[in-house]
Amino acid sequence: MKSNSAVNSSLATIKYKLTAMSFLQFFVWGAWLTTIGTYCTVGKGWTFGQFGAIFSTLALSSILMPSIIGIIADKWMRAERLYGILHLCYGFILLMIPQLDFLKQNIPFFSSMPEYDVLYWLIFAGMICYMPTISLSNSVSYRILTMFNGNVVKDFPPIRVWGTIGFIAAMWTTNLTGSKDNSMQFVIAGVTAILLGIYSFTLPACAPEDKPTERKSFFSMLGLDAFRLFASYKMALFFVFSMLLGAALQLSNMYGDAFLSGFPKGSVVEKYSTIIYSISQFSETIFILTIPFFLKRFGMKKVMLFALFAWVLRYGFFAFGMIPMGSIFIVLSCIVYGMAFDFFLISGSMYIETTSEPRLRSSAQGLFIMMTNGFGAYFGTIISSWVIDRYFTFSDGSTNWHFTWVTFALYCLVVAILFGFLFKHEHRPEEIDSLNH
Computed over its alpha carbons, how large is the radius of gyration of the chain? Predict the structure, then answer.
């Protein structure tokens, strides 16, 4: 039997390994997520509608893949190996993006397509591989921490915060290398994703937990049990609001850097837009660490409600960013982003963890991502890009960002009020304590 010091040493080593995984998980996304809008609309000169179609692939892949991958991890394949394979595929696909002309000339499938359609299919393929790894990384971290007697509520937020630091590091790398409006951002992400894929094979084995001991229905064999969560009114309502939030969540990633890049040419905000935007991620690192306190003190519903009202402030502050001294509002918007992003998604992930059967947790986490980054983000992406092109784009091609952000803020306010009235969840400290075991 291992001594306490040996167990503590093993847990410390595991936390370092999971921290590295978290850092790289979001580095390989942050290198291009907030700057692909600049790449498409500034670097390539495409419309918001064309960019919106490309960006919608994040949502479509979140609808198609996380639940399927969660089912595979629950039932048939070691989760950390599946995670590694997905990142290897993702990395190789991203490395193809700088070769758009070559692909058009040499691959029959792409030969008759306009360039933005080629990018559409490459991003779509990459997202099919990447989006499932977000929920899968949570499942792997939770499972490994539990295997080594870790405290999920206490140990996971400091690990997850390094994902945000990785996102920041990627944004800075893209900005400082002059890559925010060109395809080099995808090279940075692709090479790192391949390294992460290789690294994941060094993680402890996460064998499937659902090993059948009796005959099951065809429905159960396919792992579709997790969809029965929708039979619960409370859980169904939670997923509906996850979708509504998801419609607002990706708006920051879609338009934030393009908005800041629209400031006067040569200004500090325009030149260092990605670095200024990374204040949002610095805010994340702070708010992630406060989650255990807020969950214990206020409970999951109030923490998620705080997040929804923070989204109202996020977009409300952006709406006044271009007035004289408006940079103060931009900084304030970036500061509240940490609460807006972390308090719903991470608390929501933990809510799933406490309300789902152990054998279905990977699948349930996949459903959560499907509703937020999937259906919600898809409808938000398509509708918002149409609205901007239709109502907030001037005849000279410039954008009325003030009313764009006001519209988004009002949408978030309506969602927050409805959530407060309709979603019922009593705060029980023992529910939070259950994540410690």
Answer: 21
Parse the chain into domains and list their residue ranges: 22-205+229-436
The number of helix segments (H) and strand segments (E) in the chain equals 21, 0
Bridge partners of 393?
399
Tokens standing for 279? 């204040």
* Beta bridge pairs of residue 399: 393
d(CA 186, CA 163): 18
For the chain, the farthest-separated pair of C-alpha atoms sits apart, in whole angstroms, at 74
Q: What is the pTM of this model?
A: 0.71
Residue bearing tokens 């509608």: 49
Residue-wise pLDDT tens digits, 81-92: 888 999 999 999
The pLDDT, as a whole number, for residue 71 is 62
pLDDT score, position 90: 96
Residues in the chain: 437
* Amino acid occupying residue 63: I
Nearest to 238 by CA among 376, 130, 142, 359: 376
CA distance 310 to 326: 19
* 301 Cβ contact list (under 8 Å, min separation 6): 423, 424, 425, 427
267 CB-near residues (< 8 Å, 6+ apart) = none
What parts of the chain have a pLDDT lower than 50? 1-3, 5-7, 212-214, 218, 221-223, 437
CATH assignment of 22-205+229-436, given 1.10.357.140, 3.90.1640.10, 1.10.10.10, 1.20.1250.20? 1.20.1250.20
Q: What's the rounded Cα separation, in Å, for the pair 231 and 62?
A: 22
- Cβ-in-10-Å burial (0-12, 13-18, 19+) of 265 comes to exposed
Burial class, 108, CB count within 10 angstroms (exposed 0-12 / middle 13-18 / buried 19+): exposed
* CB-based contact 370:242 (threshold 8 Å): no
Residue labelled with tokens 């915060």: 161
Contacts for 350 with CB less than 8 Å, ≥ 6 apart: 152, 153, 295, 300, 435
Tokens of 257: 């850097």
